[in-house]
From TrEMBL:
It comes from the Bacteria. The keyword Ribonucleoprotein does not apply. It comes from Epilithonimonas mollis. Keywords: Membrane, Transmembrane, Transmembrane helix. The lineage of its organism: Bacteria, Pseudomonadati, Bacteroidota, Flavobacteriia, Flavobacteriales. The chain crosses the membrane at residues 12-37, 57-79, 100-121, 154-175, 196-217. The keyword Repeat does not apply. This is Succinate dehydrogenase / fumarate reductase cytochrome b subunit.
Amino acid sequence: MAVITSSIGRKYAMALSAMFLLIFLVIHLFVNFISIFSEEGFNTASHFMGYNPAVQFVMQPILMFAVVFHFLMGFILEVRNNNARPVKYAMNNGSANSSWMSRNMLISGAVILAFLALHFYDFWYPEISYKYIQGNNPDELRYWEELHHKFHDIWRVALYVISFILLGLHLAHGFQSSFQSIGARHPKYTPFIKAFGNWYSVIIPLGFIIIAIYHFVTQ
Ligand code: HEM
Protein backbone atom coordinates (compact mmCIF):
# COMPACT_ATOMS: atom_id res chain seq x y z
CA MET A 1 0.00 0.00 0.00
CA ALA A 2 3.01 2.28 0.62
CA VAL A 3 3.45 2.30 -3.15
CA ILE A 4 0.33 4.38 -3.73
CA THR A 5 0.76 6.70 -0.75
CA SER A 6 3.84 8.41 -2.22
CA SER A 7 3.48 10.88 -5.07
CA ILE A 8 5.73 8.91 -7.44
CA GLY A 9 4.01 5.67 -6.46
CA ARG A 10 0.61 7.18 -7.27
CA LYS A 11 1.80 8.33 -10.72
CA TYR A 12 3.29 4.90 -11.36
CA ALA A 13 0.12 3.08 -10.34
CA MET A 14 -1.94 5.50 -12.43
CA ALA A 15 0.27 4.76 -15.46
CA LEU A 16 -0.01 0.99 -14.97
CA SER A 17 -3.80 1.19 -14.83
CA ALA A 18 -3.70 3.37 -17.99
CA MET A 19 -1.57 0.80 -19.82
CA PHE A 20 -3.93 -1.99 -18.85
CA LEU A 21 -6.85 0.07 -20.24
CA LEU A 22 -4.88 0.79 -23.44
CA ILE A 23 -4.60 -2.97 -24.03
CA PHE A 24 -8.29 -3.48 -23.16
CA LEU A 25 -9.29 -0.87 -25.79
CA VAL A 26 -7.42 -2.76 -28.54
CA ILE A 27 -9.15 -6.05 -27.65
CA HIS A 28 -12.53 -4.33 -27.25
CA LEU A 29 -12.21 -2.63 -30.63
CA PHE A 30 -11.08 -5.85 -32.30
CA VAL A 31 -14.06 -7.88 -30.98
CA ASN A 32 -16.60 -5.16 -31.81
CA PHE A 33 -15.11 -4.54 -35.25
CA ILE A 34 -15.97 -8.13 -36.20
CA SER A 35 -19.63 -7.02 -36.06
CA ILE A 36 -19.05 -5.05 -39.28
CA PHE A 37 -17.86 -8.05 -41.26
CA SER A 38 -19.64 -11.07 -39.82
CA GLU A 39 -22.78 -11.43 -37.72
CA GLU A 40 -21.90 -15.04 -36.94
CA GLY A 41 -18.28 -14.21 -36.13
CA PHE A 42 -19.34 -11.46 -33.74
CA ASN A 43 -21.87 -13.74 -32.01
CA THR A 44 -19.25 -16.47 -31.57
CA ALA A 45 -16.61 -14.04 -30.22
CA SER A 46 -19.10 -12.36 -27.84
CA HIS A 47 -20.37 -15.72 -26.64
CA PHE A 48 -16.81 -16.82 -25.88
CA MET A 49 -16.08 -13.59 -23.97
CA GLY A 50 -19.42 -13.74 -22.17
CA TYR A 51 -19.19 -17.32 -20.91
CA ASN A 52 -15.47 -18.01 -20.53
CA PRO A 53 -14.83 -18.23 -16.75
CA ALA A 54 -11.33 -16.69 -17.05
CA VAL A 55 -12.75 -13.66 -18.90
CA GLN A 56 -15.83 -13.34 -16.70
CA PHE A 57 -14.41 -13.99 -13.24
CA VAL A 58 -10.77 -12.94 -13.57
CA MET A 59 -10.39 -10.39 -16.41
CA GLN A 60 -13.71 -8.59 -15.92
CA PRO A 61 -13.23 -7.86 -12.18
CA ILE A 62 -9.62 -6.71 -12.89
CA LEU A 63 -10.95 -4.45 -15.67
CA MET A 64 -13.63 -2.94 -13.43
CA PHE A 65 -11.05 -2.34 -10.72
CA ALA A 66 -8.68 -0.70 -13.27
CA VAL A 67 -11.46 1.59 -14.56
CA VAL A 68 -12.52 2.75 -11.07
CA PHE A 69 -8.91 3.03 -9.87
CA HIS A 70 -7.88 5.06 -12.93
CA PHE A 71 -10.68 7.59 -12.51
CA LEU A 72 -10.28 7.95 -8.73
CA MET A 73 -6.51 8.23 -8.92
CA GLY A 74 -6.69 10.69 -11.81
CA PHE A 75 -8.99 12.88 -9.77
CA ILE A 76 -6.80 12.69 -6.64
CA LEU A 77 -3.61 13.48 -8.60
CA GLU A 78 -5.27 16.47 -10.30
CA VAL A 79 -6.55 17.92 -7.00
CA ARG A 80 -3.14 17.47 -5.36
CA ASN A 81 -1.34 19.07 -8.31
CA ASN A 82 -3.64 22.07 -8.14
CA ASN A 83 -3.15 22.42 -4.39
CA ALA A 84 0.63 22.18 -4.78
CA ARG A 85 0.59 25.14 -7.18
CA PRO A 86 0.77 28.38 -5.17
CA VAL A 87 -0.07 30.62 -8.15
CA LYS A 88 -2.10 28.58 -10.57
CA TYR A 89 -1.14 30.27 -13.81
CA ALA A 90 2.45 31.07 -12.94
CA MET A 91 3.44 27.44 -13.48
CA ASN A 92 0.81 26.53 -16.01
CA ASN A 93 0.71 29.46 -18.35
CA GLY A 94 -1.98 28.20 -20.72
CA SER A 95 -0.75 27.00 -24.08
CA ALA A 96 2.68 28.57 -23.44
CA ASN A 97 4.07 25.50 -21.72
CA SER A 98 1.52 22.69 -22.02
CA SER A 99 -0.92 21.40 -24.61
CA TRP A 100 -4.70 21.73 -24.41
CA MET A 101 -4.91 17.95 -24.06
CA SER A 102 -2.57 17.75 -21.09
CA ARG A 103 -4.36 20.62 -19.28
CA ASN A 104 -7.77 19.09 -19.82
CA MET A 105 -7.26 15.43 -18.96
CA LEU A 106 -9.81 15.80 -16.13
CA ILE A 107 -12.46 17.22 -18.49
CA SER A 108 -11.93 14.59 -21.21
CA GLY A 109 -11.79 11.94 -18.44
CA ALA A 110 -15.12 13.15 -17.02
CA VAL A 111 -16.75 12.95 -20.49
CA ILE A 112 -15.44 9.36 -20.88
CA LEU A 113 -16.81 8.53 -17.41
CA ALA A 114 -20.24 9.90 -18.43
CA PHE A 115 -20.01 7.88 -21.66
CA LEU A 116 -19.21 4.73 -19.64
CA ALA A 117 -22.34 5.27 -17.50
CA LEU A 118 -24.46 5.32 -20.69
CA HIS A 119 -22.45 2.48 -22.23
CA PHE A 120 -22.90 0.22 -19.18
CA TYR A 121 -26.62 0.99 -19.19
CA ASP A 122 -26.73 0.13 -22.92
CA PHE A 123 -24.67 -3.06 -23.00
CA TRP A 124 -23.17 -4.25 -19.77
CA TYR A 125 -26.21 -4.19 -17.48
CA PRO A 126 -28.56 -5.93 -20.00
CA GLU A 127 -25.94 -8.68 -20.37
CA ILE A 128 -25.51 -9.14 -16.59
CA SER A 129 -29.29 -9.09 -16.17
CA TYR A 130 -29.83 -11.63 -18.98
CA LYS A 131 -27.29 -14.08 -17.57
CA TYR A 132 -27.24 -13.66 -13.82
CA ILE A 133 -30.52 -12.00 -12.80
CA GLN A 134 -33.04 -13.54 -15.21
CA GLY A 135 -30.91 -16.71 -15.34
CA ASN A 136 -31.39 -17.31 -19.09
CA ASN A 137 -29.54 -20.04 -20.95
CA PRO A 138 -26.65 -19.12 -23.24
CA ASP A 139 -27.87 -17.88 -26.62
CA GLU A 140 -25.24 -17.54 -29.29
CA LEU A 141 -27.48 -15.55 -31.63
CA ARG A 142 -28.52 -12.53 -29.61
CA TYR A 143 -25.37 -10.37 -29.49
CA TRP A 144 -25.22 -8.93 -33.02
CA GLU A 145 -28.95 -8.08 -33.07
CA GLU A 146 -28.69 -6.33 -29.70
CA LEU A 147 -25.65 -4.29 -30.75
CA HIS A 148 -27.13 -3.40 -34.13
CA HIS A 149 -30.40 -2.12 -32.60
CA LYS A 150 -28.57 0.00 -30.02
CA PHE A 151 -27.40 2.28 -32.83
CA HIS A 152 -30.89 2.93 -34.13
CA ASP A 153 -31.21 6.41 -32.58
CA ILE A 154 -29.13 9.26 -33.94
CA TRP A 155 -28.81 10.93 -30.52
CA ARG A 156 -27.08 7.84 -29.12
CA VAL A 157 -24.74 7.63 -32.13
CA ALA A 158 -23.97 11.35 -31.72
CA LEU A 159 -23.22 10.96 -27.98
CA TYR A 160 -20.99 7.96 -28.69
CA VAL A 161 -19.10 9.75 -31.49
CA ILE A 162 -18.52 12.89 -29.37
CA SER A 163 -17.24 10.66 -26.54
CA PHE A 164 -14.88 8.82 -28.91
CA ILE A 165 -13.42 12.16 -30.09
CA LEU A 166 -12.82 13.16 -26.46
CA LEU A 167 -11.36 9.68 -25.87
CA GLY A 168 -8.92 10.40 -28.73
CA LEU A 169 -7.85 13.67 -27.10
CA HIS A 170 -7.46 11.92 -23.74
CA LEU A 171 -5.31 9.21 -25.33
CA ALA A 172 -3.23 11.72 -27.34
CA HIS A 173 -1.73 12.98 -24.09
CA GLY A 174 -2.32 9.91 -21.89
CA PHE A 175 -0.49 7.36 -24.03
CA GLN A 176 2.95 8.97 -23.95
CA SER A 177 2.38 10.35 -20.44
CA SER A 178 1.91 6.82 -19.05
CA PHE A 179 5.31 5.80 -20.46
CA GLN A 180 6.94 8.89 -18.97
CA SER A 181 5.42 8.13 -15.55
CA ILE A 182 6.97 4.66 -15.41
CA GLY A 183 10.33 6.23 -16.28
CA ALA A 184 10.51 4.95 -19.87
CA ARG A 185 12.43 7.92 -21.25
CA HIS A 186 15.17 7.47 -23.78
CA PRO A 187 16.36 9.72 -26.63
CA LYS A 188 16.11 6.75 -28.98
CA TYR A 189 12.71 5.34 -27.94
CA THR A 190 10.71 8.38 -26.77
CA PRO A 191 10.07 9.73 -30.32
CA PHE A 192 8.82 6.29 -31.32
CA ILE A 193 6.53 6.06 -28.26
CA LYS A 194 5.15 9.54 -29.06
CA ALA A 195 4.55 8.71 -32.73
CA PHE A 196 2.96 5.37 -31.85
CA GLY A 197 0.77 7.14 -29.25
CA ASN A 198 -0.39 9.66 -31.86
CA TRP A 199 -1.41 6.89 -34.26
CA TYR A 200 -3.04 4.91 -31.46
CA SER A 201 -5.10 7.91 -30.32
CA VAL A 202 -6.47 8.38 -33.85
CA ILE A 203 -6.96 4.77 -34.98
CA ILE A 204 -8.67 3.41 -31.85
CA PRO A 205 -11.38 6.13 -31.54
CA LEU A 206 -11.82 6.16 -35.33
CA GLY A 207 -12.43 2.38 -35.26
CA PHE A 208 -15.16 2.83 -32.62
CA ILE A 209 -16.69 5.71 -34.64
CA ILE A 210 -16.80 3.50 -37.75
CA ILE A 211 -18.61 0.74 -35.81
CA ALA A 212 -21.26 3.14 -34.44
CA ILE A 213 -21.87 4.81 -37.81
CA TYR A 214 -21.86 1.50 -39.70
CA HIS A 215 -24.66 0.11 -37.52
CA PHE A 216 -26.61 3.37 -37.72
CA VAL A 217 -26.55 3.59 -41.52
CA THR A 218 -27.34 -0.11 -42.02
CA GLN A 219 -30.52 -0.11 -39.86
C1 HEM B 1 -18.91 1.51 -30.95
C2 HEM B 1 -18.17 1.33 -29.88
C3 HEM B 1 -18.40 0.29 -28.83
C4 HEM B 1 -19.20 -0.81 -28.86
C5 HEM B 1 -20.09 -1.32 -30.00
C6 HEM B 1 -19.06 -1.48 -27.58
C7 HEM B 1 -19.71 -2.65 -27.22
C8 HEM B 1 -19.71 -3.21 -25.96
C9 HEM B 1 -20.46 -4.38 -25.58
C10 HEM B 1 -21.35 -5.19 -26.51
C11 HEM B 1 -20.21 -4.60 -24.26
C12 HEM B 1 -20.82 -5.70 -23.36
C13 HEM B 1 -19.88 -6.83 -23.22
C14 HEM B 1 -20.46 -7.88 -22.31
O1 HEM B 1 -20.38 -7.74 -21.10
O2 HEM B 1 -21.01 -8.81 -22.87
C15 HEM B 1 -19.30 -3.58 -23.80
C16 HEM B 1 -18.79 -3.47 -22.52
C17 HEM B 1 -17.85 -2.56 -22.12
N1 HEM B 1 -17.32 -1.53 -22.87
FE1 HEM B 1 -17.75 -1.16 -24.84
N2 HEM B 1 -18.17 -0.77 -26.80
C18 HEM B 1 -17.76 0.33 -27.52
C19 HEM B 1 -16.86 1.32 -27.09
C20 HEM B 1 -16.26 1.35 -25.85
C21 HEM B 1 -15.28 2.32 -25.42
C22 HEM B 1 -14.74 3.45 -26.29
C23 HEM B 1 -14.94 2.02 -24.14
C24 HEM B 1 -13.97 2.70 -23.21
C25 HEM B 1 -13.72 4.00 -23.21
C26 HEM B 1 -15.71 0.86 -23.74
C27 HEM B 1 -15.66 0.26 -22.51
C28 HEM B 1 -16.39 -0.85 -22.13
C29 HEM B 1 -16.30 -1.47 -20.82
C30 HEM B 1 -15.35 -1.03 -19.70
C31 HEM B 1 -17.21 -2.53 -20.82
C32 HEM B 1 -17.52 -3.51 -19.68
C33 HEM B 1 -16.56 -4.64 -19.69
C34 HEM B 1 -16.99 -5.77 -20.55
O3 HEM B 1 -18.04 -6.34 -20.28
O4 HEM B 1 -16.25 -6.13 -21.49
N3 HEM B 1 -16.50 0.47 -24.81
N4 HEM B 1 -19.01 -2.75 -24.84
